[in-house]
Amino acid sequence: MKSLIFSTTARLLFWGMLVTSLLILWRGHNEPGGGFVGGLVAAMAIGLIALSEGVAKARSILRIHPVVLAGLGIFFAVLSGVPGMLAGHGFLTHQWIVFGNGFELGTTLLFDIGVYCTVMGGMLCMVLRLYEEEGDA
Question: Please, which of 21, 59, 76, 88 could form a disulfide with 42 given CB 3.0 to 4.6 Å?
Fold first, then answer.
């Protein structure tokens, strides 16, 4: 049973949850939050669309298979450790670029993006599969 009110509200909440997940991701290396919590919020945003409009609509919004997303996340997390080794330090010793205005960008953000994608992909594998089984019953 489709509900016009739920579908409309879900579309609005989707964008709010997605933006919030990115904000949580961004602030995560300096304050509480980060890739894990941000990935959970992003997965639930897409899960909300799957619940309101169906799994096919959620998969079309995602545009990438959740397993591939999780694999990319693991790749990014491992890749974030390489610059430390190249600089002569240990694996996952994070490196920072400090810009003139006090803005810092480091490999920790790449690690957090990897965690974000891995958590989002893993959760979506589970959530979308559960919603597909619900539709079969």
Answer: 21
